[in-house]
Write a structure and sequence with these properties.
By secondary structure, this protein is of the alpha+beta class. The protein has eleven helices and 19 strands. The protein has a domain of 154 residues: D-Amino Acid Oxidase, subunit A, domain 2 (D-Amino Acid Oxidase, Chain A, domain 2). The strands form three sheets. Strands 1, 2, 9, 10, 11, 12, 18 and 19 form an eight-stranded mixed β-sheet that branches. An eight-stranded mixed β-sheet has the order 6-7-5-14-15-16-13-17, sandwiched between helices. Strands 3-8-4 form a three-stranded antiparallel β-sheet.
Length: 462
């Protein structure tokens, strides 16, 4: 059944000011008004809210990419019919609000930074793991009609001083990790890909696929349910406790007793629900807009020649691409607090960024505008782990905006950890420790506000 099933209450209004640091999980909220929601078609059937107590083998909290991938893996590879608990509608959070950019990456660190932090041997092993994850994700994409746009990924230098950084990263990826990366001059970028008026050159990565993220997530959901997983929306976990070798998860409709539990709620993880996660995620808002469809003449005038997706070199980066129906999507960082998310200045910032890159689009209409929370870890890298060896409780978090592709692999690894599978790479830094806390986590919003001011000065002026 879905939200339109006769006799089942319709969704509650979407709360645009939702803030995971101060808001409760929510219950049964409708989707944000994203382009993806408007164009994905009807949501697949789900299993309705929890209605009474139940006993299960595995409960997965969160029905985004990660939770659905975990449920799919459990059913397909282990015959375990997981119960997925979702506070609002299925795939309601970041999965339905991101930019749809699938990269061979995860977290916020570049490969050169992996070497600096962990040494060459660990960096190479981590690269092999991330690359395996990207290939796994591509195999799932191939099974779902999700408007896939292959072709790689472009990092554009928004200032001349950034070219040296990109050149070094290209060299590391090519010489150390064996990728077919190459640098593009300003003229080469404009001739083949895009006439971005800010860009002075670019790094081209061969790996990258743009997707319609909600169509992809709906595909995961259909596959998982077909194999026996159940998806329960409007069933927020309000708290949980261990009892007699099991875990009691309290929802409004009943208590779910599970032998093993996985948390995969991303940037929408409310404080106080799980003490293993409190103050270990820095939720960051990202804004996005999609223009009306552009005519062939408008596309030519703007210099939009390719559907390869693009990220610029700002710390507060802009990410953008040409969609299959001729629209332009662009996103960047947004408000610090959920209460400020609707302030028109955040949409104005996106529009200004679009015009700087494509002056001919100054007066183009914006058909869709939305924002969503990104789960950033304090050390800028994800974790798929069992934080307390004494408890059968696991989580996968901290993708830092690079979760479209890696979340599929993270969900698979999460399922394997739940099932006690050995022989994998659990000694890698994304697996062998919990998410780090931070001494000043209670003051994170003040620090974030100050950092945004510093990043702006560094990105634009220094």
């Amino acid at each position: 059944m879905d939200a339109s099933t006769p006799g089942r209450p319709g969704p509650r209004p979407h709360d645009p000011a939702y803030d995971p640091l101060v808001s409760p999980p929510g219950r049964g909220q409708d989707y944000a008004p994203t382009y993806w929601v408007a164009t994905a078609g009807p949501p697949p059937q789900d299993d309705g809210p929890v209605n009474g107590d139940m006993e299960v083998d595995v409960a997965v909290v969160g029905s985004g990419f990660t939770g659905l991938s975990a449920a799919l893996t459990l059913a397909r590879d282990y015959g375990v019919r997981a119960v997925v608990l979702e506070a609002n509608r299925a795939v309601w959070g970041c999965t339905s609000r991101n930019g749809g950019q699938g990269q061979n990456a995860s977290g916020r660190l570049y490969r050169s930074q992996w070497i600096q932090r962990w040494g060459l041997d660990t960096a190479r092993r981590l690269d092999a793991e991330i690359r395996e994850g990207f290939e796994y994700w591509k195999s799932l994409v191939a099974q779902v009609d999700c408007d896939a746009q292959p072709g790689g990924h472009l990092y554009t230098a928004h200032r001349q001083k950034k070219m040296a950084f990109l050149e070094n990263e290209s060299r590391v990826m090519r010489e150390v990790f064996g990728y077919d990366t190459r640098m593009l001059s300003k003229d080469q970028l404009r001739e083949r890909y895009v006439d971005d008026h800010e860009a002075v050159g670019a790094l081209l990565e061969p790996d990258g696929v743009g997707v319609h993220p909600l169509k992809l997530a709906y595909g995961y959901l259909r596959q998982a349910r077909a194999l026996g997983a159940s998806i329960h929306p409007s069933s927020p976990v309000l708290g949980w406790r261990a009892q007699n070798g099991a875990y009691l998860l309290q929802t409004p409709g009943g208590t779910v007793r599970a032998r093993r539990v996985a948390f995969a709620t991303g940037g929408y993880t409310a404080q106080g629900v799980n003490p293993l996660l409190d103050n270990r995620i820095m939720p960051v808002l990202s804004n996005s807009l999609v223009t009306r469809a552009l005519s062939p003449a408008e596309l030519e005038a703007a210099g939009l020649k390719s559907t390869v997706f693009i990220t610029d070199t700002r710390t507060l980066r802009f990410y953008y691409r040409l969609l299959p129906d001729g629209r332009v999507q662009i996103g960047s960082r947004s408000a610090v607090h959920g209460a400020d998310a609707q302030n028109p200045r955040h949409l104005a910032l996106l529009k200004a960024g679009l015009v700087r890159k494509f002056p001919s689009l100054r007066d183009v209409d914006v058909d869709y505008s939305w924002w969503g929370w990104v789960d950033v870890s304090h050390d800028m890298m994800p974790r798929v782990t069992q934080p307390d060896p004494a408890q059968q409780v696991y989580y996968a978090f901290g993708y830092g905006g690079n979760g479209v592709s890696f979340s599929a692999h993270a969900g698979r690894r999460l399922a394997q950890r739940l099932m006690g599978q050995d022989g994998l790479k659990w000694d890698l830094p994304i697996y062998d420790s919990p998410l780090p806390g931070h001494l000043f986590a209670p003051f994170r919003r003040l620090g974030q506000s100050l950092l945004y001011r510093w990043y702006y000065l560094r990105d634009e002026m220094l």
